[in-house]
Design brief:
The structure holds two protein chains of two kinds.
Chain A: H1 12-35, H2 44-75, H3 77-119, H4 122-136
Helix pairs in contact in A: 1-2, 3-4
Chain B: H1 2-21, H2 24-59, H3 75-106, H4 111-125, H5 131-149, H6 152-163, H7 167-203, H8 208-252, H9 258-280
Helix pairs in contact in B: 1-4, 1-5, 2-3, 2-7, 2-8, 2-9, 3-7, 4-5, 7-8, 8-9
Classes of the chains: A mainly alpha, B mainly alpha.
Chain lengths: 137, 283
Amino acid sequence: MPSPVMPVPIDQAAEAGHLADLFNDLSQALDDFRLAPHNPPISANQLARLKSDAQSLEDRAHYFTAQAIGATLQMIQPELANIKAITAKAKTQVGTLNNVSKVISIATSAMTLGTAIAAGNTSSIATALAALGKSLA
Amino acid sequence: MISNRAPIISVLVVLLELWLVSCATPDAVSKFCGSATSTLAAAAPIFDDMKQSCLREVNSRNEFATFTPPIQNEGNCSLIGDQAKSAAAAAKILSEYFTAINSVASFGTSKAGTDAQKLLSEATALGGANSATQTALGSIAQFLVSAATSGYRQIQLEKDLSKASGDVPIVVTALVTIVRDDYIGRQLLSEEQKLSDQYREFARNKSPELTLMLDGRWHADEQGIAARRASAQNLVIALETLSKGFTDLATNSHHLKAKELAGLLEPYAAQLQTLVPQIQKAF
């Protein structure tokens, strides 16, 4: 029994990019032809037609360039969503860290007060109390 | 009682000292993240120019001396512009990620460090306190050390780095593709070709003097395109450097020592800092 043929994944960005290149090359080939010397010369009407066709081909090239960028961006949507989620969590962590820092600050002031009380130094107690009050504010 | 507590406090003091030493690691991470953010910010004008390049090209279809104001919008150029905005938004998401990592990495290194230093001196000066005070202070010190040495910040940093270790390079590669293939390889190239066509068309059957004058003007216009191309090429190099630096950081952040990590990241950060002004040159 023959093994099932697996479909080859299509790289949409690359395909759109190739089409953009193809249309751009065609447009440029028309312009090169139009701008080259010809004998007998090409009529003004024909030149205008060639120029218009080259522009239409270039418009197609722009369209496919936009498609190529869009397809590239489409491919990274899951990664972007994940990075966004991690960023949001990291921002929350900074908030948590801020709380931890605040608690450290309060406890350090309490420690200073405790040391001052233990030493029985009145002016140090007053200073430490003020610092603790500031930490708690 | 006092003699029983003293060794505990000494251990706590040592732990605190160890924690203070470890603060050097986030500094290196912070510097790298700052360079990454600057690089991504410098990319915005290049993405903006994708639509402008398309419009310049469309406007070059008008012959010289037709005296028609340049168009500001065109269907396909707007499509390119919309996609370029999305690319810029993707770069912004990456930039915000690096900013957030930077915040976590650099959080409280000075403030918490100062507080802990203060605690160190308070704890070591504590000699003659009565047992109740000693117990209370010991408990507070224990809490402080557990908060400070839990490595909360470090652990979170490593988690944030490893969670995005696969995603960031993929997004950067996509941005590189857009800048290298779609902007440099397609849009700027066709703008350059059509600009040349505009001059060639106008120069036909003109006097040699006028042709020479047009040649000089074309060179000036061409230099503008070359400058934008050079800026974009520098952006590609910078994005690739950023991606490689980030991969190295995510791979090694958990096992390298502070000094080693700084040594690993420094070349990437320095290269990015050199490249950013080169990216900005044409815009």
